[in-house]
Amino acid sequence: MKMTQKNNILISPRVNYRLVYEHKAPEWQPSYFYDMRFLTPRIDPDNIARCFCFESNPLTYEEIEDIAINGYKDKFGVPWVYVPQSNGSIVRPGSPLLSDLNDWKNKISFPDIESWDWEGSKKSNAEYVNTDKFLCAIILTGFFERLVSWMDFEAAAMALIDEDQKDAVHEVFDELAGLYIKIIDKYILSYGIDLLSFHDDWGGQHAPIFSLATVREMIVPHIKKIADYCRSRSVFFDMHSCGKIESLIPALIEAGCDSWSGQNINDKKKLNEQYGSKIIIADSDSY
């Protein structure tokens, strides 16, 4: 375990990471992969469906192989299939649950997370979360990505700018924000997390998928609800959004994100000079 002295006392990677999020000078530059412990427990079916289970009982090779062949349903009942070539899971395209988001109340059933065995998960992961590393829980499927899982990509992107669907988008995102806040609350109570990393990819290789104006109108208010809740519970909020989304950083700041862990195809040096006092621009390996 990496330890160092600060004012004649030893500090842990967890304390050192917290200094960064408090915009104070850390004792060393923390490593995203070595000083942080990720938590994506089995209790949430999304983490199994996405083959991204970090907990005391990770997925076995046989389980992953089965998901590659037969798929696995997420918490909304949508089947995902593991793709070995990309080391990740996708929803099989071509048979979306929805073509028009106005039908969501008839087609989408929200999960009852109170029925999940939180006490059992807490006990089985007690040793895993008893760590001196910065404990980061992850919500893998954010707002836009959830739409994509229900509608496929083209229809989901259109829903954000279609005047006939915008009200439905806000209704759904409001419900999702409420669900995610309930899950975060369970993560705090069951595991004592330090950081919540919220995954929602907004960009491609060369540019964002949608405009800054669209993000501000359709997504920022709902991210802010979650970020504000995390802050009220003394948990930091990280936005993990892939793609070249440099022009969308103002939206992340307005949403109250403490950090953004994006890809290095973005000019991190320039962004840090421009926005570093307002949001932590995280590197792929370290903050």
Task: Describe what you observe in this structure.
The structure is a single chain. This protein is α/β, with parallel strands linked by helices and 287 residues long. The protein has a single domain, classed as TIM Barrel. The protein is built from 13 helices and eleven strands. The chain has helices spanning 13-21, 45-49, 61-70, 104-107, 118-124, 126-129, 143-151, 153-159, 166-191, 212-218, 220-232, 249-254, 268-275; strands at residues 4-6, 9-11, 36-39, 72-73, 79-83, 88-91, 134-139, 195-199, 236-240, 259-261, 280-282. Helix 13 (268-275) links the parallel strand 10 (259-261) and strand 11. The longest helix has 26 residues, at 166-191. 38% of the residues are buried. The model has no long low-confidence stretch (mean pLDDT 94).
